[in-house]
Write a structure and sequence with these properties.
about 220 residues; mainly alpha; about 5% strand; globular
Length: about 220
């Protein structure tokens, strides 16, 4: 089966019915995953990519027990980033920003960061650092206190600068300062409201703690 045929098979599956384990696990395997998104990028099939991302997010939650907590969180991070990438590449930036906020609000997954970054006293960065009580946002270190060796940083932090750039682009467009408007959603594309509803319905339950994954930021 070619990767295009695999993509067609994924999209033909009922949207409200989670993918079965075999289909899901093959899709998330490194070989299939890379080939799938490479094909989506090559054909600029960003709306198909968005739909696939939402279905994989749904399947990740459905198969959470099978994945285990580490696998569940690693998959969610990967799929959430792919969903945002599709919205970005499709230039659906208003939807991107709304999705970004939903993901930021309803997820607690973290990646490890170096503790000495707290000495930079960057308020935005520190708002993404997880506290001992599971919430986010830590105060400046008191004078003379040594920082911890590692800290847990919300996985969306590396996308903060891209988000800020998109916000500036939208502001410029709305002020009439850019000649090119955002690419309109193609016929049949998911509506902004539907994307937000599906993200909210299949996101991580609030209050679940994250496991530190991956390399340091």
């Amino acid at each position: 089966m070619t990767i295009q045929e695999w993509l067609t098979q994924l999209l033909s599956h009922p949207a409200l019915e989670p993918l079965d384990w075999d289909t899901f696990s093959v899709t998330m395997s490194d070989t299939t995953w890379k080939a799938l998104w490479r094909d989506i990028d090559a054909t600029q099939a960003y709306d198909d990519g968005l739909e696939v991302g939402l279905r994989l997010l749904q399947a990740t939650r459905h198969h959470r027990a099978h994945l285990g907590e580490r696998g569940y969180q690693a998959n969610q991070i990967l799929v959430y980033r792919s969903i945002l990438a599709m919205l970005d590449k499709a230039e659906r930036w208003d939807v991107y920003l709304a999705a970004w906020e939903i993901i930021r609000t309803q997820t607690t997954h973290c990646l490890p960061g170096r503790g000495d970054t707290l000495t930079l006293h960057d308020p935005q960065y520190m708002s993404f650092v997880r506290r001992d009580d599971g919430g986010f946002g830590v105060p400046p270190l008191p004078y003379g206190v040594r920082p911890p060796k590692t800290i847990a940083v919300h996985f969306l932090y590396p996308q903060v600068h891209r988000k800020a750039l998109i916000e500036r682009k939208l502001t410029q467009e709305r002020a009439g300062k850019r000649a090119a408007a955002c690419r309109p959603a193609p016929p049949g594309a998911l509506a902004a409201e539907e994307i937000q509803v599906r993200l909210a319905q299949i996101g991580e339950p609030v209050g679940k703690g994250g496991i530190r994954l991956g390399a340091a930021l």
